[in-house]
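Write out the 3D structure for:
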Amino acid sequence: MKTTNSFEDGTQTQVQRPESKMFTIIAIILFIVGVIISLLQLLLNDDISLRTTDLPNHSEIVIGIMIGKLVLVAILLLAAQFMFKKKKGRISMILSIIFLIVASITTTSAFVARSKENRLNKVAMQKLISIASHFADNKDLDADKLEESRYGSIAPFLNLSNQYFISYKKLSTAMNADIKKLNVRTIVGASTFTTSAKINSSQQKIQVLMSELDKYASDTDKITNNMKSDVSKLDIPIRYKENIVTGFADGQLKAGDSLKNYVIFEKSFLKVIDTNMSFMLKEKANYMVKYNLIYFTKPADLATYNIYLTDLRKKAAEEVTMLNKIKSDNNKQLDNLEDLNR
């Protein structure tokens, strides 16, 4: 800056030197470039670093960080204007250069972090597909903890998914073992109706299994409800919470519902058998078992028994359909995961 005197009114005016104007223009350009780079850094880094525990709205956080940075730099530039009046153009340019360098360094760091996170995500998605595939194929699942150093920020979700897959599998395996132990094919055979003692014994086994199925249904509800709660508490980057986690958790909950529906169906299947047991026990004197066939003395009893056989066949067909649907749903979920990984 240079100062000129006005002899008419005795006032002084300041004229900005050309080089000072140039420095000021360069400072403004560098500042704008730094702002653009800072915005890019926020886009790259905010959803990696921000976790979901006790945080306000995501957009508010991003805007707050951006405004905070810009205000800080603006304050420094204004301070330079007042503190260094003669060299404010140069000082503003120097501050803008520093701002640009810092923004470039942090953005580069964010880019490296995002690249690493994307690489770990690929590994995590492959692991998630492997877990789901093992569950669908009824294979054993590894209960070891999955570390964030290997699977990135999504590791807590992988551990949660694996934990619940294991819980569902244990429940399903135990239930199927109890059903198999009952040996339904034998218990509905003609040999069961040779004596009242055999019928009573078979009914007791059915009642025990029905009680166990009630427990399995209750346990399934507990697993499903616990998962809903645990997913909401996961401390992971927001973009995973909003996309992969929510979608896959919904699939997990559907798997729990399928298991519960299967439990309810098996109980209704057993109810049909139990009702027939009561009927056969009541009418024990009106039929006989010979050559593994049942001969009724009253046509009405034969008609009732034939209705039971029809209902039993329908239930058996429904069971096959339900099991196929559960398998199909598991395969669809696996396909959806593979689509996400493409």
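Residues 220 and 259 are 7 Å apart (CA to CA).
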